[in-house]
Specification:
This protein has about 230 residues and is of the alpha+beta class. The protein has one domain: Jelly Rolls. It has six helices and 16 strands. The protein has helices at about 15-25, 60-80, 80-85, 105-110, 115-125, 230, and strands at about 5-10, 30-35, 50, 90-95, 100, 125, 130-135, 140-145, 160-170, 175, 180, 185-190, 195-200, 205-210, 210, 215-225. The strands form four sheets. Strands 1, 2, 3, 6, 7, 9, 13 and 16 form an eight-stranded antiparallel beta sheet that branches. A hairpin with a 4-residue loop joins strand 11 (about 180) and strand 12 (about 185-190). The longest helix has 21 residues, at about 60-80. It is globular, with a radius of gyration of 18 Å.
């Protein structure tokens, strides 16, 4: 069965919490002009951003969003288990026989979130979360881009560790403003509280279309591989 590997899950964040995040964003003194990989370029991306992971007062929001992301990620991996097993050979001990075997793609499909999360945490880690606001009729991210690239001043190569992108739409009181995927020829229409998950590589090149008639707000981040020195300590 053909699939575009783009998952959208509705109702991940309640409308009330979405509104609380928007209000806190607008009241925050930490808003900055949004950047692309090389820095500020409003012709490529015109937004106001807060990297909430940098600020202790946003810790509750970060934890809430990451908890929601983990639930969606577990569901994603049960649908697309090779996102985990094709990249890392993970050994697991059979509790009945005591024998260690490789985790297989078909094994993931029957695992509960509780059973799957340890494997997820072994292989992956959450990225820093950005809350972004796009002004009506002017803001947007019109440049076709992907999330995996060599980033200026990124000495830890964090952007190259990105496996999946995710975004939560915090509101929908506007027209257009879709997330548009180039090769999949798919427009994802924002819906309050919905989360989108998709691969971070060039195969899922995308852009954020300009909202009209109302401001657009999202929270967005990535699922990254754990660093090799943590996965394979000397």
């Amino acid at each position: 069965m053909l699939t575009d590997l783009i998952d959208v899950t509705e109702g991940v964040i309640t409308p009330d919490i979405c509104q609380q995040i928007i209000r806190r964003f607008e009241a925050s003194p930490h808003k900055k002009v949004g950047e692309v990989g090389s820095g500020v370029d409003r012709s490529m991306k015109d937004s106001r951003d807060i990297t909430i992971s940098r600020y202790p007062e946003w810790q509750d929001v970060e934890e809430h969003l990451n908890t929601a992301m983990m639930g969606c990620l577990c569901a994603y991996l049960r649908k697309y288990p090779h996102a985990l097993t094709a990249s890392l050979a993970i050994g697991t001990r059979d509790p009945k026989s005591g024998v260690t075997k490789m985790l297989r793609p078909e094994d993931l499909q029957g695992l509960s979130d509780e059973a799957l999360i340890p494997f997820v945490r072994y292989a992956f880690r959450p990225g820093m979360i950005n809350v972004q606001g796009y002004r009506a009729d002017e803001g947007g991210y019109p440049y076709w881009h992907c999330e995996q690239y060599p980033k200026a001043k990124d000495t830890q190569c964090e952007a190259l560790h990105r496996v999946l992108l995710w975004s939560v739409y915090l509101n929908e009181e506007f027209e257009a403003g879709e997330t548009e995927f180039l090769f999949q020829q798919r427009l994802v229409k924002p819906k309050t509280g919905a989360m989108i998950l998709a691969p971070a590589s060039f195969s899922h090149t995308h852009r954020g279309n300009k909202p009209t008639g109302g401001d657009k707000y999202i929270a967005t981040s990535w699922v990254l591989f754990r660093r090799s020195e943590d996965l394979f300590p000397a």
